Amino acid sequence: MKGLVIKCPRNIFTVKKMDNSDYPQSNIFYECRIKGKVLKTEKRCYNPLAPGDIVDFEESARGKGMILALEPRRNLFKRFNRKGRMTQILAANIDQVICVTSPAQPPFRPRFIDRVLVQAEASGVNAIIVLNKSDCIDADYQENGIAGRLADYQRIGYKLITVSAKSGEGIEELRSLVRKRLSVFTGQSGVGKSSLINILLPNAQRRTGALNEKYNRGNHITVLSELLESGTEEAIYIIDTPGVRQLVPDGFAAEDTALYMKEFAYPALQCAFGLSCTHTNEAGCSIRDSVESGTIHPDRYESYRRIRIELLDKESYT
Ligand SMILES: Nc1nc2c(ncn2[C@@H]2O[C@H](COP(=O)(O)OP(=O)(O)O)[C@@H](O)[C@H]2O)c(=O)[nH]1
Ligand SMILES: [Mg+2]
Ligand SMILES: [Zn+2]
């Protein structure tokens, strides 16, 4: 049988039987294990399968199954798990990344957004920025440069929508963007991912958290990625991801970082120092010139520097 991986707690995989019919599909779930060593997975990877993976499996007992093979993946959305020093696959076979952010509570963090966007580019999928909690927009939004940073993401080619899980603003637009697609929702803890998912998928009912809880260590409400779906003709598929404090990109080399930042790619290819340029201290580097001339926002350049250094650091011990 063919199945869709829904979630993977402790290497027991919840697999939904797939059939050939259109939506909504069957609602038959199996608790599966992987048979022997049939899956060749990446070295030093935290989890062999992720929500969104498609597998071949057989029933072994009532409601139980054995996974026999993994279908080739279209893409993977990963991060580097620094504590475990290995790759963690958050989602597979996705159509888009929904990067959820908020103007306040928790504070707006463009550096987190940049990491998500880099990882989306490295996965080869489109990312959309969703500013939730529009009901919390206050004077700070203009004064502290949040509006300006968001406008820059639009300038470099990202779609931005403004929503509120509380007031309902923008929800219909968000719904139209996630219809008939598999989206991965990612963003800092507390920005409202689960709240938005609960509105889009009324039968999902994810736990949402009080804000003060969010800042406590090891007290995340969502600890695992999980695939949720509308089960209706809307065919909304969403993978909710755990709240992480820091998303360390994974799956590409430090020296290629610029290729995964939209507005860097062109000057990177033009750089007189070629692809070996670090774009950090070389005089006459096209990327540094672009920062000077304003085609690259200085904040994005700072993100570039930090991500690159972090990846170099990671490469030194993996
Ligand atoms: N004011 C306001 N609060 C929201 C909004 N969306 C979510 N919240 C609150 O923010 C907190 C964190 O939400 P949650 O969905 O758990 O965030 P997650 O960690 O990203 O999944 C909860 O207390 C929600 O009630 C919103 O649009 N406006
Ligand atoms: Mg959550
Ligand atoms: Zn350069």
Describe the structure.
27% of the residues lie in helices and 24% in strands. The chain is α/β, with parallel strands linked by helices and 318 residues long. A six-stranded mixed beta sheet has the order 10-9-8-11-13-12, with helices on both faces. Strands 1-2-3-5-4 form a five-stranded mixed β-barrel. It is globular. The protein starts with a strand and ends with a helix. The model is unreliable at 211-221 (pLDDT under 50). Bound molecules: guanosine-5'-diphosphate, magnesium ion and zinc ion (ZN). The site of zinc ion has 8 residues, from α8.
CATH homologous superfamily annotation of the largest domain: P-loop containing nucleotide triphosphate hydrolases
Number of structural domains: 3
Give the helix proportion (percent range): 25-40%
Average of pLDDT: 90
CATH topological fold name of the largest domain: Rossmann fold
The ordered H/E elements are EEEEEEEEHEHHEHEHHEEHHH
Which ligands are bound? guanosine-5'-diphosphate, magnesium ion, zinc ion
Briefly note the structural class of the backbone: alpha/beta
The best one-word shape is globular
N/C terminus separation:
37 Å
Q: Could you name the ranges where pLDDT drops below 50 across 5 or more consecutive residues? A: 211-221
Strand line-up of the largest beta sheet: 10-9-8-11-13-12
Annotation field: number of helices: 9
CATH class of the largest domain, named: Alpha Beta
